[in-house]
UniProtKB/TrEMBL annotation:
Domain of life: Bacteria
UniProt-recorded name of the protein: histidine kinase
EC number: 2.7.13.3
SUPFAM superfamilies: ATPase domain of HSP90 chaperone/DNA topoisomerase II/histidine kinase, HAMP domain-like, Homodimeric domain of signal transducing histidine kinase
GO MF annotation: an example: phosphorelay sensor kinase activity
The entry's keywords: ATP-binding, Cell membrane, Coiled coil, Kinase, Membrane, Nucleotide-binding, Phosphoprotein, Transferase, Transmembrane, Transmembrane helix, Two-component regulatory system
Lineage of the species this protein comes from: Bacteria, Pseudomonadati, Pseudomonadota, Gammaproteobacteria, Moraxellales
Amino acid sequence: MFRTKLLIVFIILAFIALLQGSISWWAINTAVDNVQRGRVASDLMTDFVELASTKQELRTWLNTAIEEKRIDLNERKKLQQKMQDIVSNLEFLTKKAATLDAVRGEITTEDIERVEALNTLKQHLQDINAILESLHSVDNNNISTLVLTDAIEKIFIHDGDNAYALLSERISKERLAVVRERAAADASLTLVSSLALGTTILLALLTSSLALYFARALRQPLAELSDGAYQLQQGNLQHRIPDNREDEFSLFARRVNQMAAELDQHRKTEVAARQHLEELVQARTNELQNALETLQKLDTRRRQLFADISHELRTPTTAIRGEAEITLRGRDKPVEDYKSALQRIVETSKQLATIIDDLLTMARSDIDMLALERVPMLIAPTLQDAILQVDSLARIRQVNLQSDIEDGVKVLGDAQRLRQLFIVLLNNAICYSYEYGKVFIDARKQEDKGSRYWLLSLRDQGIGIPPDDLPYIFERNFRSPSARQHRPDGNGLGLSIAAALVRAHGGHIEVQSQTGQGTTIYVRLPMYIEPHILLEDTL
């Protein structure tokens, strides 16, 4: 399995990388230790040389005092402090060198010699300080040459020869230590470079070998998978990818072969289904042709039916109106109590006659030829009147009407036709709502790109309209299956009449709906702008 092989390869590479890192870490630490030891040895040698040089400066100072027969105390103190600082630094470096040797687990003879030499030099420095302090009590401006010469003999002849020899010995040994530690540091750095180069070459060779191995091992299965994919792309579902190996590629090939077999079976099933569907379509076409002829006959009968309904309803409507007018003109009756009621009867009868005329017009296919009496009018009262007329229907169906109507907006319209439009839309919203649902009515003026219009938004929480039926809702007699199920007594004329009325007023109607989530109808009508206001806006 390629997965196991890859895992083994990654483990080997990780082990080699870890080994390389460990060796490099050890070699670098060794080199750093050698560098530090070499730096300490170099500093020790420098300080011993500096101490010898400072002691020589002290001798020069004493010779100058003999010549001038006076002592410069400031210069003496400066040289004393300088030698004291050098000895202190030598003591620090000696301890540091011993610490570095202790880290290695060894205390060398060289460390012991350094300590002994340092103690000797410290004692010699104390003797020098005592001799120099004894000169402090002498008159600086009248000092005896004999006193200064005695001081030189004590410092540089009696004990000085031993101190000078000791300093020379330490300088030589520290110089050898510097050379030795630098050589050790160079050897450590050379070892680091060699290890890095060796492991890099090893990793490069191993990686190249593994890449070559996997390239050869993957070439054939990948070629077989690529060829199989190409055959499937060309539609050759009978092709099968070889799957006789025991690896991931064979497992994938078996899955692809199974998929190809299933696709081939689905294709055969699809061909059979298509043939069956063509037979059904042909049979359905014949049925539709027969249905079309039947519908043409039914349409003729529908037009006749509308004409008959219009004729039959006009007579009783005229009688009701005549009786109401006579009642209103009567002198012998006290008519003030019910005069307004009779007036509404007259208006309702007129609206009924108008609707009947509309039905007759629709039966004659000329709904767009409605005659309107358009005048500047406030549209809010007409909408509110329509809401009052459908309020009883809303209460019966337990639907709550909520309105937000902006006053003072004028349109150029026919009040009677607009009332009919609003009643149709409100009636639809109520009848196709669920019990305890709400109908939201919002009307206000809008402005878009310099165009002013009045926008009515009427949103219900009813059954909604399926997306497939939306393109046909303004066609005459169209009713969706869900509408027939919810309200069997409808006739499919409401929205057709509403669309015709909106077009007659130069407006636009739009419907947005989703099944089960209600319907929103937007009616946009041009606003009427008073001439003087229009002139002011133009100026």
